[in-house]
């Protein structure tokens, strides 16, 4: 979680390999037992694929809920699965112990090279 904006989560991935890694598209995220993944924020699409040299990080923002309370079907999620590309395996980053509140506004950004860009949306 990031302290500002309050209803956002920042996903950070780091290339731990020895070759460049391309972050294509956006992460498919699943909170708790959700049956579907949230939509991508089309306006967040970068000009080019984000390429991470070894040791570098990339970012995606997750809008968890409507800041004005207009979202519906809200619930507290205690787990998160993040899928990359077409891989069937997922990363399971930890969430705060009390979980995170998500509602029908849930959406993700495309992968970004800059943390600030991921949190703009």
Index terms:
3% helix, mainly beta, 1 helix, 121 residues, globular, 3-stranded antiparallel sheet
What this model shows, in words?
Helix content is 3%, strand content 31%. It has 121 residues and is mostly beta strands. The protein has 1 helix and 10 strands. The chain has one domain.
The gist of it:
With 121 residues, this protein is mainly beta. The protein has one helix at 115-118; strands at 8-14, 21-23, 28-31, 50-52, 57-63, 75-77, 80-83, 90-91, 100-102, 107-108.
Total beta-strand segments: 10
- Our count of domains comes out at 1
User: What structural class results from the helix and strand content?
Assistant: mainly beta
Report how far apart the termini are.
15 Å
Strand content: 25-35%
The backbone outline, from C-alpha atoms, is globular
Give the biggest sheet. Answer: 3 strands, antiparallel
Radius of gyration: 14 Å
Helix-residue proportion: under 10%
């Amino acid at each position: 979680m990031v302290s500002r904006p309050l209803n956002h989560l920042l996903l950070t991935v780091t290339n731990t390999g020895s070759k460049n890694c391309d972050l294509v598209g956006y992460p498919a995220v699943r909170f708790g037992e959700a049956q579907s993944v949230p939509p991508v924020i089309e306006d967040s699409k970068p000009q080019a694929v984000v390429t991470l040299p070894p040791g570098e990080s990339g970012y995606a923002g997750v809008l968890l809920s409507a800041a004005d309370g207009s979202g519906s079907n809200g619930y507290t999620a205690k787990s998160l699965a993040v899928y990359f590309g077409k891989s069937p395996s997922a990363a399971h980053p930890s969430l705060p112990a009390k979980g995170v509140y998500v509602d029908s506004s849930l959406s993700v950004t495309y992968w970004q090279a800059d943390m600030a860009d991921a949190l703009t949306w």
